[in-house]
Every structure is written in C-alpha cells, then in structure tokens.
Give the backbone structure.
Amino acid sequence: MVWRPIEPPDSVEQAIAENHATWDEIAHVHAQGSGADFYRIEQWLDGECKLGPWEIEEVGDVSGKSLLHMQCHIGTDTLSWARRGAVVTGLDFSENALIEARRFAEKLGIENSRFIHSSVSNAVSALGGEKFDILYTGRGALCWLPDLDEWANVCSKLVKHNGILYLEESTPFVGTLEPTETTEGVFFVPKYDQFNEGPISEIGEGTYADPNWPGERVTHCWEYRYDTIINALIKHGFRVISMVERDELFFNPWPDMFETSRPNYWRLKDGEVRFPLSFTLKAIRE
Ligand SMILES: C[S@@+](CC[C@H](N)C(=O)[O-])C[C@H]1O[C@@H](n2cnc3c(N)ncnc32)[C@H](O)[C@@H]1O
C-alpha cells in the first residue's frame, strides 16, 4: 500500500465530499469483497463479537439501554452491541455502508437496530432530538472529522444526563510515526505534524482492510492530540472518568512489524520497542 501526499483541497466541504465518495466506494469491499476477511465477516455472522473485551467491560451492561453508534460503517460493531442486548442506532454518512449494515441486521434477524443516514454535523436533527444512554464511537472515526469542537457539541446533545460517551481510537503515536528504512534497520520516525491543523491529504491504493485492493483513493484525515479530544469533551459538558492506553490496535498499519494479538486486534512483534497503540476513553454527560 503506497500512499503519497497531495495538496489538500481548497475547502473542508470538498475534503468531506471526497472522503464521502471514498467511503461509499469501499463499503461493499469491506462487507462482502476482499476486505471481508479483515472484518472477519464470516466469523462474525457465526456469532463472534467484534468488540474488544475491554470495551465490553468498560461500557458495562448494555441490556435494554439505548446506544447510538456514530460513524457505524457497515454495522458490525453496532450489531455486536445489539447482540449484547442494547437497542442500537447506527449513524453514518455513507449510504452504501448503511445498505450493508441493514442487510446484516436482516440476515441476523436483529430487530433492536436501525441505521440512520446522516453526517455527524447533522446528527442531532437527523435523530429528531432523541437522546441516548450510551454514545459509542471510534476505531478510526475521529480522524475523518475536521472539527472536534463541533463533534463534541453534537455528542453533548445526543447523550442523556448521566449517560456515557465511550470511544476507542488509535493513539497520537500511531498517527505521527512511520517505520522508515535506514542503513541500521527500520526505525519509527515522526512523519506527521501533530500541531498541523489542516488535513493530511493522500492518494494511494488499498484500504486498511485490504492493502492490495486495486482501487485508487483520495483521503483527507485530521490527526488529533489527546488535549484536543479531552478539552472538546470537557467544554461541552462531559466529565472524563477513565482513559486507558493499550499495546493492541484494531487495525494493522504496518504488517511487517505487527502480529495478530487476538481476533480483530494486532500488536508490535516481540523485540520491537512498544509504545501505546490504542486508547479507550469513557466520559459522563453531566
Ligand atoms: C473506519 S469507519 C468506522 C469504524 C468502525 N469501527 C468500523 O470499522 O466498522 C469510519 C466511518 O466514518 C464514516 N464517516 C466519515 N466521516 C463522516 C462524517 N462526517 N459523518 C458521518 N460519518 C462519517 C465513514 O462513512 C465510515 O463508515
């Protein structure tokens, strides 16, 4: 998977439109094409859970609770929560992703689920002002949003008083470092500027689910530091009650240096110097 930088578009709207086109294009690839192995679709349809064990533990009992999954993609995580008894709503701006999510819900006979087509920006009106017990998001979600202040504001309007927001994301290390070949071996060096406020715009082939997928895609991502995420949540009425970093990650950005740690998770191979790869954060809406 070779990716090269390109000039960011003139406007955020254009960046989002190009990301939207990309997500619409790869939804079917992830659900029923060459990316389905990464998503472990067969195993998941057979009953395997897509959630990390720590997610289940940290979110707690979801049975009978309303759970909104923002940026739900093809619904595999959303429906994993539904299998645990939550009444789930998935929201995403990719219609093709939602077609797959609804198809899965029907195939599995999961009735306590619905999927709503909306951008994060328009989520409050798309959901008619409804508030949820739990807002779940992440695993490659925040990097697609240009404005975390707006995101946190939207989240604050979607979570009930004393409800929770829970997310799992890759750490700023993963967003900054890139393995680089030197005469003395391969080393991680900082590549992306964590204080850059514009998008990181790139073009390349493949997706995280299938690096060999031949379609060429343009992506515009925003890398976030912890302070940006946490301060946005605090500003919009959340109290962060826990944050945990882990040496496992929900995708495999560097196949030469990573190995599978458990289904749906990877970690650095033995002998590599470890650094935090992912984190979870739980916050209460006050
Ligand atoms: C990596 S996926 C979400 C992660 C999910 N855990 C998964 O892998 O199934 C990112 C999702 O964000 C959605 N997305 C990106 N930008 C969005 C926006 N502004 N509003 C709503 N959805 C958006 C994309 O359509 C995509 O389905």
Observations:
- The chain has a mean pLDDT of 95.
